[in-house]
Design brief:
The chain is an all-alpha fold. Helix content is 67%, strand content 0%.
Length: 199
């Protein structure tokens, strides 16, 4: 499974500065002036690319989330069947998202920022993740390790499942009970994915 690369520069100083600002004070208290100062560029440089903080943070989230997803997928030379690699990547991705400091900050301080992507519409990062999933599922159909099915429906269903475990897991865990810990639920996610994808 070769990762699909998107046009989100890993070394964009403005996005790096935006990430630092959001980690420091949250999205609502971040201003384009703060980001420009931290990035060492003029405010007009920022305004030429982003009209407001929310659009800038949207691009930041896309860059960070796609990098997390791509980084969680096993390498292309992994000899295992696609289903095994895909399940490993999705479970590792859910864990990596939950450990990501930007995800934590937004969930803790500005959770309303995520609501449109849960309730109303898909964002750029979700579209990129769907592309990644569809490519992997297509390979799984070819090698016979993933049950046949409508490619886009399967990809969207997988994203719905993994997204719910990522966003809502802390509402269900009880770290005083090993059977209800985050690790236990990630094992349950593995079982769900394995069973839904098996031929």
């Amino acid at each position: 499974m070769t990762p699909i690369r998107h046009n989100h520069s890993d070394a964009d100083p403005v996005l790096d500065a935006a990430r630092d600002c959001v980690l420091a004070v949250g999205v609502r208290r971040t201003t384009l002036t703060d980001v420009a100062r931290r990035a060492g560029v003029s405010r007009m440089t920022i305004y030429r690319r982003w009209p407001d903080v929310r659009s800038l943070v949207g691009d930041l989230m896309t860059r960070e989330w796609v990098a997390v997803a791509e980084g969680a997928m096993p390498p292309a030379d992994d000899p295992r069947p696609v289903r095994e690699r895909l399940v490993d990547g999705l479970v590792a991705g859910a864990a990596a998202f939950r450990a990501h400091p930007l995800f934590h900050k937004i969930l803790d301080v500005d959770p309303e920022l995520l609501l449109p992507y849960v309730l109303d519409r898909r964002g750029a990062s979700q579209e990129a993740l769907l592309e990644l999933l569809a490519a992997a599922l297509d390979l799984g159909h070819t090698d016979g390790s993933v049950r046949p099915g409508h490619l886009q429906r399967q990809a969207r269903s997988l994203l719905l499942v993994v997204q719910s475990f990522t966003l809502s897991l802390r509402t269900m865990t009880d770290e005083t009970d090993p059977e209800l810990s985050e690790a236990a639920f990630l094992d349950e996610l593995r079982t769900l994915l394995e069973r839904t994808l098996s031929p």
